[in-house]
Amino acid sequence: MKKTVYYIEGDGIGPEVWKAARPVLEKAVEKACAKEEQLEWVELLAGEKAFAETGEYLPQNTIDTLATARLAMKGPLATPVSGGFRSLNVTLRQTLDLYACIRPIRYFQGIESPLKRPDLVDMVVFRENTEDVYAGLEWAANTPEALRLISFLQEELKVKIAGDSALGLKPVTEKGCKRLIRKALQYALDQKRTSLTLVHKGNIMKFTEGAFRNWGYELAREEFSGQCVTEGEALNDDKRIIIKDRIADAMFQEVLIRPEQYSVIATTNLNGDYLSDALAAQVGGLGLAPGVNMSDDLAFFEPTHGTAPTIAGKDMANPGSLILSGAMLLEHVGWGEAAQLVYNAVEKVIASKKVTVDLASQIEGAKQVGCREFGELVAENI
Ligand code: NAD
Fold first, then answer.
1. Any residues with CB less than 8 A from the CB of 110 and at least 6 apart, and which?
2. How far is it, in rounded angstroms, from Cα 128 to Cα 125?
């Protein structure tokens, strides 16, 4: 059966990584799947290309189509820092209720890493994607809205707060936390993983981050009893999923020092953003960091990296992250054999030390290749 994949090319390095990645995925499907199993690509516009063609950065047609789609894939989209338009990525995640951002982090043999034992890194981060300080509820200092909210806080809630503060809200709901943690725990069970770690900053932000932790334990107890156990109650050689929690700052140290102790991670939006980039760096950087944003209906695959404006258009970008996001898509639709071909081919090309500049600079004796050539090499190895 054909699988329709709606795709957005993206800005910056988006078009070049797409050109390199798509033939790889097609070849893997052709090799591993039955003749009638094919990917059918349908382009949707967003970002600079959409603006050039329609005068809008996120045309309504794109949102409407994605609202009923099951599968999509995108390149990175640019967002101006402070001011300008709101992040298209955040808008897409919120409009389509893509509440779970899932980023697997694994090591490929041959990559030089800042870690002594990068091969011990094998984690999957589930990041809540719609709430927290990313909800977009912010007011600039001294605006009428900020002043009104500050006077409410001072007068009604007797809160001490400087009158000229800029304000941001951090909404965190039980429903939002539990549906993310449920997905992470179900994944841990399905994939026979060893543990789920709830990462939070609940010692300081007790009612938001602390609540995330508490709701996590509550969900595990109420919905997965018998299948998981808390760290404190686990027996020697326990086969159940071990539920642990770690404070976010300590977790950054833990994943460096004891990566083997962490498997599936569930965390709030901001923590997850930081942690998944840091973990990607431990195994070779953003060029090999795939991901997916999921609602209950739509799986929207995307690389973790951004538009890399300084190397855009120079055939220097690493298309690995988009290629691996595509492999996740193949796994998601049940074409695991095709996905495995992609993983093996990426591994082989890296082992041959023919890599893009981001990796070449880290690997002794590497031969630097361009974005296009790296894609071709991966395709040849399928
Ligand atoms: P970035 O990921 O674009 O770049 C960070 C660093 O990594 C740069 O040195 C870049 O050259 C390098 N890099 C990134 N991807 C690479 C690749 N595939 N191959 C080789 N090197 C790569 O992050 P940034 O500079 O913070 O952001 C640039 C723009 O991208 C901003 O507008 C930001 O909002 C946007 N962004 C979009 C997404 C997304 O669409 N999901 C994610 C992150 C950033």
1. 347, 350, 351, 353, 363
2. 10
d(C-alpha 292, C-alpha 294), whole Å: 6
DSSP, res 87: P
User: Could you tell me the pLDDT band of residue 67, with boundaries at 50, 70 and 90?
Assistant: very high
Residue type, 110: G
pLDDT in tens, 277-323: 899 989 877 778 899 999 999 999 999 889 999 999 999 999 999 99
pTM for this prediction: 0.92
Span 7-47, pLDDT tens digits: 999 999 999 999 999 999 999 999 999 889 999 999 999 99
Distance 286 CA to ligand 1 centre (A): 8
Amino acid in the structure at residue 239 = K
Measured N-to-C along each axis, helices 14-32 and 320-332 cross at an angle, to the nearest 10 degrees, of 40
Ligand 1 contact, 9 CB (< 6 A): no
For the CA of 371, the closest atom of ligand 1 is 19
Q: Give the span between the Cα atoms of 212 and 121, in whole angstroms.
A: 25
User: Between the CA atoms of 203, 208, 213 and 216, what dihedral angle is there, to the nearest 10 degrees?
Assistant: 180
Confidence of residue 129 (pLDDT cuts 50, 70, 90): very high
Tell me the CA distances in angstroms from 192 to 64, 137, 195, one per residue in order: 37, 38, 9
- Largest CA-CA distance found in the chain, in angstroms, rounded: 69
Q: Is the CB of 20 under 6 A from ligand 1?
A: no
Q: Which residues are catalytic?
A: 134, 201, 249, 273
Q: How far is CA 95 from CA 130, 182, 207, 232, in A?
A: 9, 21, 26, 40
